[in-house]
Design brief:
The chain is α/β, with parallel strands linked by helices. The protein has helices at 25-37, 70-89, 100-120, 137-142, 160-163, 169-176, 187-199, 227-235, 237-250, 268-281, 303-323, 340-349, 364-372, 401-413, 416-432, 435-448, and strands spanning 3-6, 12-15, 18-21, 39-45, 61-67, 126-130, 149-152, 181-184, 204-205, 208-211, 214-220, 254-261, 289-296, 331-334, 352-355, 377-381, 394-396. A 9-stranded mixed beta sheet has the order 5-4-1-6-7-8-11-10-9, sandwiched between helices. A 6-stranded parallel beta sheet has the order 14-13-12-15-16-17, sandwiched between helices. The protein has a two-stranded antiparallel sheet with strand order 2-3. Strand 13 (289-296), helix 11 and strand 14 form a beta-alpha-beta unit. The longest helix is centred in the N-terminal third of the chain and has 21 residues, at 100-120. The radius of gyration is 22 Å and the shape is globular. The structure holds adenosine-5'-diphosphate and 6-O-phosphono-alpha-D-glucopyranose. Residues 9, 24-27, 131, 154-155, 298-299 line the site of 6-O-phosphono-alpha-D-glucopyranose (G6P). This is Trehalose-6-phosphate synthase. Belongs to the glycosyltransferase 20 family. InterPro entries: Glyco_trans_20. It comes from Thermus brevis.
Length: 449
């Protein structure tokens, strides 16, 4: 009896430096879970990866790849997943590109996944399917295997009125309902899903959906970070030294930090505009603060992401053009991927983290920062799933530039005692959301059902 995790992304990427953990909330959270209990991870191999055997070092994990043609990969991942479902679920309706071919490739690839899982599945195994790339998979698997089948959706499930934009909405919901237990980060997303299921004619009672003879349970299971790992990182002497060197680089009293994949849902452009507004409205901070924005390249084959990069480059250039002085660099923009060790040093060095997505399923960066920081302030978007759980952060509306500028000023002036009080409360909440206990809770609920 073992665990089979199925996700589009493998938990590792093969780079020139060898195997490195994949970037993104799903992989960061689930890898330690599977490492701890062993099992198989089934993931797509991007087109072009063929022949390469990207296999994790950890012997406890078996990695199964689903090899796709270029056409399949482009239609399923670049197309239906990232040009349709991602913008739809994050309420970026103008970015949706509805094309029938994308859905056909999505269906074909979900079938390929179903075949791959059915091949390795043994009686008694638990299958745990992840995220928006594989909405049809639980339904397809239900026809092929028996045994516990869970599904977790890592991004917001939108209101049913928005979901109905999809011509294939019913098929997608029916696909999800192939699972025995469906999980979301928050009750808001779970309720949106239940209303969507009811709209498509599935009988809903409380948090249960009837599908023929079966009952599907829908629950909220907020996912956190690997707290053990971040605690270890935060204790290392190298981290302290690296954090001090980052502060020397900043060369100012106060350091502000942003860390994201370069994605239009993350509100990076709006955050930079808010920083510009802050420097205009609170001129006494000029020369005394620096903002480090880290953005890791993401989904660069999708036009909306390339356009975002252009827009962000432009605002960065404008801010530097207006405020840069010989003795002060107000903003540094790092367009690159870091290791967890390096990111933790940035977290430790920063006085304030500005985590202001326009919409986000959870946002693990917010948790990583609050857990690693020793005296910082977390400024968090009220449109991130994490805001439902991290009540002691300074919550802001990421569309309100003036409000964000004011919150930044408040965060920078916050007295030590208040910062400590908020951080301690946040750390306790993050401890309770630990990724391993998330998996334990979800899987025990699945098996108990
Ligand atoms: P998403 O899953 O949408 O990317 P999250 O904030 O939930 O957003 O998760 C992002 C994960 O990716 C975090 O674990 C974070 O540490 C990691 N990450 C983000 N930016 C970088 C970066 N520049 N380099 C390395 N890891 C990053
Ligand atoms: C979000 C999604 C994940 C995805 C990650 C990185 O966290 O919920 O499913 O893996 O972003 O995006 P990518 O497209 O690079 O896998």
């Amino acid at each position: 009896m073992s665990l089979i995790i199925v996700a589009n992304r493998a938990p590792f990427r093969l780079t020139a430096e060898g195997l490195v953990p994949a970037v993104g909330g799903l992989a960061t959270a689930l890898l330690p879970v599977l490492e701890a209990q062993g099992g198989t991870w089934v993931a797509a191999a991007e087109w072009g990866e063929k022949g390469r055997t990207a296999h994790p070092r950890q012997s406890a994990i078996r990695l199964e790849r689903v090899f796709l043609s270029e056409r399949e990969w482009q239609g399923y991942y670049g197309g239906f997943s990232n040009r349709v479902l991602w913008p739809l679920c994050h309420y970026f309706l103008e970015k949706i590109e509805l094309r029938r071919e994308y859905f056909q490739d999505y269906l074909r690839v979900n079938r390929r996944f179903a075949e791959a899982v059915a091949r390795i599945h043994r009686q008694g195994d638990t299958v745990f399917v992840q995220d928006y790339h594989l909405l049809l998979l639980p339904g397809l698997l239900r026809e092929k295997i028996q045994g516990p089948l869970g599904f977790f959706f890592h991004i917001p499930w939108p209101s049913s009125g928005v979901f109905r934009i999809l011509p294939w909405g019913r098929a997608l919901v029916a696909g999800v309902l192939g699972a025995d237990l469906v999980g979301f980060h928050t009750w808001e997303y779970a309720e949106n899903f239940l209303r969507t299921a009811a709209y498509y004619g599935f009988p809903v009672e409380g948090n249960k959906v009837r599908v023929g003879e079966r009952t599907v349970r829908v629950e909220a299971h907020p996912l956190g970070i690997d707290t053990h790992r971040f605690h270890e990182l935060s204790q290392s002497p190298e981290l302290g030294a690296h954090a001090r060197s980052l502060r020397r680089l900043a060369g100012v009293d106060r350091l502000i930090l942003g860390v994201d994949r370069l994605d239009y849902t993350k509100g990076i452009r709006e955050r930079l505009l808010a920083y510009e507004r802050f420097l205009q409205a609170y001129p006494h901070w000029r020369g005394r603060v620096a903002f480090f924005q880290i953005a890791t390249p993401s989904r660069t084959q999708v036009a909306a992401y390339r356009e975002l990069k252009r827009q962000v480059d432009e605002v960065v250039g404008r801010i530097l053009g207006s405020f840069l002085r010989e003795d002060w660099v107000p903003l540094r923009y790092f367009y690159q991927t870091y290791t967890q060790e390096e990111l933790s040093a940035f977290y430790r060095a920063a006085d304030v983290a500005l985590i202001t997505p326009l919409r986000d399923g959870m946002n693990l960066v917010a948790l990583e920062y609050a857990y690693t920081s020793s005296e910082g302030v977390l400024v968090l978007s009220n449109l991130a799933g994490a805001a439902e759980h991290l009540k002691e952060a300074l919550l802001v509306n990421p569309y309100d530039l003036d409000g964000m500028a004011a919150a930044l000023d408040r965060a920078l002036r916050m007295p030590y005692g208040e910062r400590q009080e908020r951080l301690l409360a946040l750390k306790a909440r993050i401890q309770a959301l630990d990724a391993q206990s998330w998996a334990d809770r979800f899987l025990s609920s699945l098996e108990a059902g």
